[in-house]
Write a structure and sequence with these properties.
Blueprint lengths: L2 H12 L1 H24 L3 H39 L1
Helix pairs in contact: 1-2, 2-3
Length: about 80
């Protein structure tokens, strides 16, 4: 595995931005497929529709993940101190 690939996997594994990015890409692909199957729209049309809601969900997930990460660090720190 190249240094670049190792860095990408490390970014995804260790950061809220990485996890939010992977979640958002997967959500867009799923939403695009569902819109296309349910409405008969082309993948281009379904992709346009599918970009809005998953992108908002991705931003929401980023903030939730940041909050969870901060809370987890706080609990671990408090446990060590006590």
């Amino acid at each position: 595995m190249s240094e670049f690939q190792t860095g990408i996997f490390k970014l995804i594994k260790n950061t809220s931005v990485g996890r939010a990015f992977v979640y958002t890409i997967g959500h867009i692909i799923i939403a695009m497929s569902v819109v296309s199957v349910l409405t008969g729209a082309s993948l281009w049309e379904a992709g346009t529709v599918a970009l809005v809601e998953p992108t908002i969900n991705g931003v929401w997930y980023y903030f939730l993940d940041k909050l969870f990460t901060m809370r987890t660090k706080w609990v671990i720190l408090k446990t060590i101190v006590d």
